[in-house]
Amino acid sequence: MVLSFTLALLAKEPAATVPFLATFYEHFLRDDRAQTSLGQKLSRYFTLWLLDVAYLLFRTRIFGGLAPVLQLSQISRREAFYSSFALVAQYVWKVLWPVNLWRLLPFPQERCAV
Question: How far apart are CA 29 and CA 46, in angstroms?
Answer without folding.
Answer: 18
